[in-house]
Amino acid sequence: MKVDGKAYRTIWLNPDGWSVEIIDQTKFPYAFETATLRTLEDAAHAIRVMQVRGAPLIGATAAYGLCLALREDASDQRLAEAYEVLHATRPTAINLRWALERMRKLLLPLPEADRLSVAYREAAAICEEDVEINRSIGAHGLTLIEKIAATKKPGEPVNVLTHCNAGWLATVDWGTATAPVYTAHDRGIDVHVWVDETRPRNQGGFLTAWELFHHGVPHTVIVDNAGGHLMQRGQVDLVITGTDRTTLRGDVCNKIGTYLKALSAKDNSVPFYVALPSPTIDFSIEDGIREIPIEERSNREVTHITGRGEDGEIRTIEVVSSGSGAANPAFDVTPARLVSGLITERGVLEASREAILSAFPERMSPAA
């Protein structure tokens, strides 16, 4: 994607050949800054405090985090320690575990002297694969938008509602839920995005709106609870969200509030699609509600908010009654029965065990 005419990815290797640069997403939307990761601890911190976020990007960052750990010590013990440190940073996004297991499986059989160079090559490969996967998601999702566009009168946009940030900033490039939107926009299709603000961290208002603006896509930020209202009035043609973990039977776990959008979509006959790269599918579980761990984040994210005042200063303020308790589950699970389809790199699938296994049979093999 481009920022002020310059092409960027969210993570890349620096010219020194070993340190890793990331876009610091805690600075949005008020500043565009990068940060350098030089140690395992830097990588773990970046994931934990959400300098990087979004399931695919978390996985890519974890892969590079292992590389940084092995620079100091390439022993089995160090590899095991680094795996545990990174795995503990975020419990819900399955791409984190997927990337770490892929790296460990490749590296463990190798002599210590060979591990570092192979690790960097594999981390780079994970990044390149993510870009191509998301590009394919954009192509397959484009067909859904094209069908709706064909029914519109001249000048009427296709209205897409999304939740949280499943865009370029959540992946290495392109995004998942936004990939079809960017592809359609670049093809000249008139498309407009309703952007849920996504409390409590405002990833929609801070991140999705920022990247849509810089790509030139028409969009409108709305409060989280406005989606159902818009659907009732025929102002939403389809919903596309991302997911941090999808079960074998097609349940999807995404940012808190996604389930409510799916219920509203079902009640108003609005198609509800989920865009996901295959590494986001957890082939080891089926029941998302019972089996997916839901991250509980700091209550302070609910009780306080950071923004820019009219004087231009960035400040954090309390937004609830002092002394009130707060709960902050970061994700919820949308059952497969509410999902119109899964937009993957291998096509738009039914949200079912049969469809997922048919599209990705190799993931169930002993060698997977």
Automatic annotation (TrEMBL):
Functional pathway: Amino-acid biosynthesis; L-methionine biosynthesis via salvage pathway; L-methionine from S-methyl-5-thio-alpha-D-ribose 1-phosphate: step 1/6
Chain residues that bind substrate: R53, G54, A55, R90, Q203, N254, K255
Keywords (A to Z) from UniProt: Amino-acid biosynthesis, Isomerase, Methionine biosynthesis
The reaction(s) this protein catalyses: 5-deoxy-alpha-D-ribose 1-phosphate = 5-deoxy-D-ribulose 1-phosphate; 5-(methylsulfanyl)-alpha-D-ribose 1-phosphate = 5-(methylsulfanyl)-D-ribulose 1-phosphate
GO molecular function, one term: S-methyl-5-thioribose-1-phosphate isomerase activity
Residues flagged as site, Transition state stabilizer: C164
Entry annotation: catalytic residues: D244 (proton donor)
Coiled-coil region list: none
UniProt superkingdom: Bacteria
Gene3D superfamilies: translation initiation factor eif-2b, domain 1, Translation initiation factor eif-2b, domain 2
InterPro entries named among the record's database cross-references: IF-2B-related (IPR000649), IF-M1Pi (IPR005251), IF_2B-like_C (IPR042529), Initiation_fac_2B_a/b/d (IPR011559), M1Pi_N (IPR027363), NagB/RpiA_transferase-like (IPR037171)
GO biological process, alphabetically ordered: L-methionine salvage from methylthioadenosine
Annotated HAMAP family: Salvage_MtnA (MF_01678)
Protein name per Swiss-Prot or TrEMBL: Methylthioribose-1-phosphate isomerase
Native organism: Stappia sediminis
Gene name of the encoded protein: mtnA
